[in-house]
Target: L-threonine 3-dehydrogenase
Amino acid sequence: RQVTSDASFHSVSFSETDHPKVLITGGLGQLGVGLAKILRKRFGNNNVILSDIRKPPSHVFHSGPFIYSDILDYKNLREIVVNNRITWLVHYSAVLSAVGEANVQLAREVNITGLHNILDIAAEHGLRLFVPSTIGAFGPTSPRDPTPDLCVQRPRTIYGVSKVHAELMGEYYHHRYGLDFRCLRYPGIISADSQPGGGTTDYAVAIFHDASKNGKFECNLKPGTRLPMMYIDDCLRATLEVMEAPTEQLRMRTYNINAMSFSPEELAAEVKKQIPDFQITYNIDHIRQAIADSWPMNFDDGNARNDWGWKHDYDLPELVTTMLNFIGSDSR
Ligand code: AKB
Model:
């Protein structure tokens, strides 16, 4: 706060430092545009900058600040942080699980080298840094039902390895340099108006589009493959909440968050309640199946609930109703 005064009265006006100035990397992925929307509502349109290396669609370009930023280009990143007086950085650039297995070099570059740039810039400029981790940071030797925050983490994907690396590096920078690092392990995120790209949980988004358009869906995971999942609104709210949480509430710097767990056959049964003719068939993608079989089935997020009050709004029935309504109204 800045206290301003003139001859006749004292008034308190809010300086720009009352609101964080946020940069979101990887802003054109599944989550960036949605996060920008809720952060802009809270902190003002001009205080939230979306960035990516791709050209934004016109509705994104016209809805608020957008800039080119390549996380592999340290100088470019530093220039953006300095010129825009950034105070919070949300680091959404990442190559996801299935695409990572098809292109290990790219995943290593973006998810590990890119993260090093982000950590150094954030530490150098005193930023509050959010980096998402994932259920994919666990592996076949982790307890899978449920998976607690602290347990064996030996993932078998480059995506998972890079995310364990991000968790450990962020926590190391926090302890060593005082970096305000905050990290949530997301489950599979389900969204209607943005597409995931190259993940193992993507089927749980595609099913709604195909069910709504064609009344059928070919699933690339086996019927009984149970994975933790969350509706995007819960995920974005959790992200804002952990970013705003007072430091003293954060007993840890990396938390599991969860909403529900289901398998393709359970999801299909719920869709069928609203589209009775809906048919699901299975054509297994063996790479994705092996990944899913090594991931948590249920996710224990008790620490997030106790420490900073995490609570999800959407269970499976609300998720299905919301998704089908959204997609249905969009195509009408
Ligand atoms: C993926 O499937 O790779 C992601 C994730 C769960 O991190 N959606």
Notes: Confidence is low (pLDDT under 50) at residues 1-16. The chain is about 40% helix and 15% strand. The first strand starts at residue 2 and ends at 5. Residues 96-97, 134-136, 159, 188, 196, 199-201 surround 2-amino-3-ketobutyric acid (CB under 6 Å).
